[in-house]
Specification:
- The chain is α/β, with parallel strands linked by helices.
- Helices cover 38% and strands 13% of the residues.
- It has five helices and four strands, in the order βαβααβαβα.
- It has a four-stranded parallel beta sheet with strand order 2-1-3-4, sandwiched between helices.
- α4 links the parallel β3 and β4.
- The longest helix has 23 residues.
- The two termini are 24 Å apart.
Length: 164
């Protein structure tokens, strides 16, 4: 079992939507053995997704589920095989708190070969949430490729360099 931990600020928009979308894409591709989790660097535990996040997921045919925000902690970090940050700053914050996470921490869009961050749609229009989900899906497609590659015999690696 591989565990993916998606991380953003509040764990109500980006990481929550990316988690729902990744679960959906994994089911579509019949990929098994992947647990998807999410957390926020400054999450208020128990917060829910904004209505526009639900709307963006629903428009894409993705069931939003019953998401509740969770605060990133040492157990989440230790249990993850892939820690996927929405921005370079998120990745830096993760590594400042948990330096041991460096080999498994990357930004989402780095899986698509892009150095840009995933912009926070919070407070924006429904279209902004839809656009955010579309951007994140590019990174999720690359992440799925990394998840489904066979591991080299010499040890665990997750593809490209793990710099944020």
């Amino acid at each position: 079992m591989k565990t993916v931990l998606l991380v953003c600020t509040g764990n109500t928009c980006r990481s929550a939507m990316a988690g729902a979308a990744l679960r959906h894409l994994l089911r579509q591709r019949l990929v098994r053995g992947v647990e998807v989790r999410s957390a926020g660097l400054m999450a208020m535990p128990g917060d829910t997704m904004p209505s526009y996040a639900h709307l963006a997921l629903s428009r894409a045919g993705i069931a939003p589920g019953d998401h509740r925000a969770r605060l990133l902690d040492a157990d989440e970090v230790a249990g993850a095989d892939f820690i996927v940050a929405m921005t370079k700053q998120h990745a830096q914050d993760i590594l400042e708190r948990f330096p041991e996470a460096a080999p498994k921490t990357r930004t989402l869009l780095s899986f698509a070969g892009v150095t840009a961050d995933v912009s926070d749609p919070i407070g924006g229009s429904a279209e902004r949430y839809v656009h955010c989900l579309q951007i994140m899906t590019m990174g999720l497609e690359g992440l799925i490729k990394a998840l489904t590659q066979p591991e080299p015999k010499h040890g665990k690696t997750h593809g490209k360099s793990h710099t944020p």
